[in-house]
Amino acid sequence: MKRGSTLFLKAVILLIGIGALAGIIIFPQLEGRNINADLFNIYFQDPFLAYVYTASIPFFVALYHAFQLLGYIGQNKVFSLDSVRALQTIKYCAIILNILIVMAALYIRIFHAKGDDPAGFIALCIVTTFISVVIAAATAVFERLLQSAVDIKKENDLTV
């Protein structure tokens, strides 16, 4: 049962990664202002798109470490320092992603919202910021709990 659930969660993480990668590659070609542009103009002359690709790095790093953490769970190495480090990396990636999303919202609001209301984009930024904060808080709690469990396990291994 445990192996099946970790395998299912690994598949979900893999599908999320593939979907996100496909989205950031395909969406710029379908965007309204780029509908008739060639690939060079779409991918190399849009500074916001370069920012999106750079900001997606912490997301994919967090997905990789979540995949790694599920591997540790499958190998019964949950109470190890590697699991704590994976949770710590996920927490830091969520915090960095949160900051980058807020910076993107401010960039769009300040520099590109002249005469236009970017309510949809700002709402999307608020939702993703909230999700990122929840993930950072949850991983911080799990990290603390797992670190204390690792410390207790280490003490018990030394006394035996």
From TrEMBL:
Keywords: Membrane, Transmembrane, Transmembrane helix. Coiled coil: none annotated. The chain crosses the membrane at residues 7-28, 48-71, 92-112, 118-142. InterPro entries: DUF2975. This is DUF2975 domain-containing protein.
